[in-house]
Amino acid sequence: MGSKNLFILAVALGACTPVQPVARTPQAEARLQQALSGRVAGPPISCLPDYRSDNMVVIDDDTILFRDGRTIYRNDFQGGSCSRLGSGNYALLTRRIGGIGLCRGDIAEVKDLQNGFTVGSCVMGDFVPYTKPRS
Q1: CA separation for the pair 97, 65 (Å, rounded)
Q2: Number of C-beta neighbours around residue 77 at 10 A
Q3: Which of 18, 64, 89, 98 lies in the 20 to 30 Å Cα band around 4?
Q4: Tell me: the pLDDT tens digits for 42-71?
Q5: 131, burial (CB in 10 Å: exposed 0-12, middle 13-18, buried 19+)
Q6: In a domain, 30, yes or no
Q7: In angstroms, rounded to a whole number, what is the distance separating the alpha carbons of residues 90 and 7?
Q8: Span 66-112, pLDDT tens digits
Q9: In a domain, 118, yes or no
Q10: Domain count for the chain
Q11: In a domain, 49, yes or no
Q12: Is residue 55 classed as helix, strand or coil in its secondary structure?
């Protein structure tokens, strides 16, 4: 087998490597656990209607939550993180592909509020609803 074939094989095998779980800081993990405590995950949905996309809580550069009454929707960004989102004077701005709300695949940008610069971007993932079981 030639070196070109070995290279192609190595690239193909690398593409099959499973995505590693996000390494959170202890503080971010504690915030996430506290927010979801006592709640059960439901099946993921691909879009969050506009009326449910208010009240965003930043966990870290990889995860955000949306509160809607008894339900909290968790979104883990696809393909990377929104750099600096969890570190202070930054805002998350989204570009919506469709008109029904915030959806998986929508692009989000992190803007520096002081200077107006874009400092990072990411892609929205699925929205996983977490609810407290009824007693």
Answers
A1: 20
A2: 19
A3: 18
A4: 999 999 887 666 688 999 989 999 998 889
A5: middle
A6: no
A7: 41
A8: 998 889 999 999 966 788 887 778 888 876 666 678 889 988 889 98
A9: yes
A10: 1
A11: yes
A12: coil
